[in-house]
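Hi, here's the filled form for the chain we discussed.

Project: internal
Contact: R.S.
Residues: 100
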Amino acid sequence: MLDVDLVKALANDKRLLILEWLREPERHFRPQRDGDLVEDGVCSLFIAEKLGVSQPTCGGHLKVLSGAGLVRGKRIKQWVFYRRDEERIAAAKEALGGDW
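And the returned structure, exactly as it came back:
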C-alpha cells in the first residue's frame, strides 16, 4: 500500500527541488558558519533563500518532507539543518516502483 504522506511530499515541484539540492549540498549552497553542509545538513534559511520563498513557507515544505521521512532535521544553536534520509528515499523509490 502506498504511503499517502510520501505521495503528498513528492507531489510538489518545490519539495522535489529541495530533495534534488540536498543530494549535493556543496554544489547548491554556499558554506555555512555553523554546521557542515554534508554532515549536518543545510540551514533552513539557505533553503528558503534559494527557493525564493519566505521562511514559514519553506518550513511548511520541510515539515511535509520530514513527515514523509525523506529529510531529517538537526538543531544546531537556534537553527535547524536538513539533510536527506537516503535509506528512506531508497525505500520510497522501491515502493513507488512496486506492483500496485
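Let me know if anything looks off before we file it.
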